[in-house]
DNA sequence: CAGTATCCGTCTTGATACTG
DNA sequence: CAGTATCAAGACGGATACTG
């Protein structure tokens, strides 16, 4: 990237990269998107699959994704209620870049973890007055 | 993604996807990586290029990337001091998936912004008692 | 079942000022 | 030049309890 290519609007919250990178970085959003890549899933199923997340936070995540047009929320008129979440075409189109990133992660995160250990060890030694 | 494919360790901070997605979502990290894709850059240059970030936050970002083994920091013994930051091979390998994601963003963020407007309008109408 | 309502600690980000 | 120190503010994620 050349100097002149850096958008003057990096601070613009609507800068394309910022919008997407933020969503990717969201603690649960990417996981939900990848889960929904397998087809529609109802709320309670999502909860089971991502059992560490509380209903409040899961709902927040889903609402944000819905607002961004990445998933749809369909309420089935039943008793008990049933709500299905499903990727939109837009959401599905995100699956590929997301998968590429996940593959990069699986291939290279071991190196990152090693680098962290090495860095931390060097820091420790420095602190010990060496 | 099938149910059984969901790693039981989503809460593991060392889960590959989590590590990378978090770094991508960092407010300045991805931008710095892409800037450094053009070759080594010294601290003051980075500051000018990303002029909205304070030195403290820029330093934080750089330290994190260095710890992760994505960039190197080289101090030149000069007066005045000069410090260059540069991508490692690991950092460079991240450039491609990052670019793919940025391209997806540039192509699809307009749709996301439209979706947000539509969603917000619908919400407003609902609030107005319609 | 599918959420919502409250409350709260932590982590992140930034403003401002200072230093080797 | 290349940072560090300190302080403050807000966003974020989560625990817990309750509801149509």
UniProtKB/TrEMBL annotation, chains A, B:
Key word tRNA processing present: no
Keyword Oxidoreductase: no
Pfam families assigned: HxlR
GO molecular function: DNA binding
This protein's UniProt keywords: DNA-binding, Transcription, Transcription regulation
Ranges of residues in domain HTH hxlR-type: 15-113
Identification of the protein by name: Helix-turn-helix transcriptional regulator
Provenance organism: Arthrobacter cavernae
